[in-house]
Amino acid sequence: MRVTAVTCVKNEGPFLLEWIAFNQLIGVTDHLFYSNDCSDGTDALLDALADRGLCQHLPNPAEGRNYQMEALKDARKQDIVINADWVWVADVDEFLNIHVGDHTIPALIDACGDPQAISVNFQFFANDGIETFKDAPVIGQFTRSHNPDMWCGESAIEVKSLVRHDFPLQYYGAHRPFQKGKARPEWADGSGRKVPHKFLIAANPRRIRRFPANGARAFATLNHYALRSLDSYLVKNDRGDVNRENRAFDDTYWRERNDPAWEDTSIQRYLPDLKAALVELKKDKEIKALHDASVKAHVAKRDELIGQPEYQDMQAQLRAASTLPPQEEAMLIELGLLEPAK
Questions:
Q1: How far is the CA of 123 from the CAs of 95, 143, 159, 261, 289, in angstroms?
Q2: Cα atoms in the 13 Å half-sphere on the side-chain side of 36
Q3: Distance CA 131, CA 135 (A)
Q4: DSSP label at residue 206
Q5: CA gap 257, 324 in Å, rounded
Q6: Inter-residue contact 210 to 156 (CB < 8 Å)
Q7: Closest C-alpha among 6, 163, 21, 24 to residue 85
Q8: In degrees to the nearest 10, what's the CA dihedral of 98, 227, 250, 7?
Q9: Do residues 46 and 290 lie in contact, with contact meaning Cβ atoms separated by under 8 Å?
Q10: Residues in a beta bridge with 263
C-alpha cells in the first residue's frame, strides 16, 4: 500500500524529521512537501531529504495568498499523488494517533472496512505552561488537551482526511476531499461509522469540515500540537500562516487551544520507535547538520523576537492568559460561576 502525505511548510525545520519519521512508523510511504519563503533552512533540509528519496520537495506554486489550496491543486498533477493508493493531507504539527491493530494506517483502513475516505477528528494539545523550545519529539512533550469530545463549547470538531485513489474527487480540501456532483462515496469517521450526511454532502457551511467527535474516535484521533512551546509559538506568530499570508495569531487562537483539562499519553506508544528512527536519520551527517542548523535558527529567531517590546508584551500576555477557552469563560461568567477578569 502506497500512502502519500501532502503538506505545506514555512520555517518548520526543527520539526520535519520527527513528522517524517512518525509518518513512516504509521505506514506513510511517500511525502510531498511544498515550501515557501523559508529562512530557517527548512528548504535546504527538505532538498537533502529529497536527494535521499525520503520526500519530494517543490516550491509552493501560489502567486496569491492561498498557499495551501494552490499547493493541493498542483499536487493532483504529481506522480507521487497520482500513483498513491491513499493520500493524507495534513500539517507538520498534526499526528495521526491510531488506536487499533498495530497502530498503522493499514490497520485503521481495515478496521473502517476499507472505505473511500476516512475523516479523523482533531484533539488540540495545550502548551500547558511549557515555555522553552526543546529539540525533542513533540509527541513526548505535550500530554494535555481539552476534553476530546468538546472543544470551545462545540461538540463538532474539525477533521483531516485520508482519501483513497478511487474517491470521486472534484478537489482536495485542507480538511476533507470534495466529491464530484451527486456522488456518494463510502466515507467513514474515526470509528468506522458513516460520516454524518450533511458533512458528506457539504450541506451545512458551519459543518463543512467538522462533525461531532463523541463516538467518532474509537480507531483514531488526530493529535494537533498547534501551540508547542511558548518559544515556538512566538516564532510561529512571526512567520504567519501557510494558509493565509501575513495572518497573525492573537491570544484567542492560543486560548482556544490551551485547555489542559484532559491528559492523554496514548500517542507515546510510538515514542521508543520514533526516537530510534530519529537516531537513524541523524546518522547521516549532512541531515543532522541541516537539522541542527534549523534548530539554531529557530532559537535565534526566538531571541531576536523577545528583544522586541511588542513580543515581550505578547509573551507576557500569553503567560497570563486564562487556560479556559474564551467561549467557556464567557458562559461561566454569564452563569455567575466565575468573576470577570479585572
A1: 10, 11, 9, 12, 33
A2: 21
A3: 13
A4: G
A5: 9
A6: yes
A7: 163
A8: -60
A9: no
A10: 144
In this predicted structure, what is the pLDDT of residue 332?
81
* Beta-bridge partners for 160: 120
Residue 116 half-sphere exposure, CB side, CA atoms within 13 Å?
Answer: 14
Q: Are 6 and 30 in contact (CB under 8 A)?
A: no
In this prediction the pTM is 0.95
Q: Which tens digits make up the pLDDT trace of 290-335?
A: 999 999 999 999 999 999 999 999 999 999 999 988 888 888 888 8
Q: Which residues contact 28 (CB under 8 A, 6 or more apart)?
A: 3, 4, 5, 88, 105
The identity of residue 324, as a single letter, is L
Mean of all residue pLDDT scores within the chain: 94
List b or e across 294-324, with b for residues whose CB sees 16 or more CB atoms inside 10 angstroms.
bbebbbebbeebeeeeebeebbeebeebebb
Whole-number Å distance between alpha carbons of 281 and 264: 28
How many residues does the structure list for the chain? 342
**Is the separation of the CB atoms in 278 and 17 below 8 Å?**
yes
Which one-letter amino acid corresponds to residue 152?
C
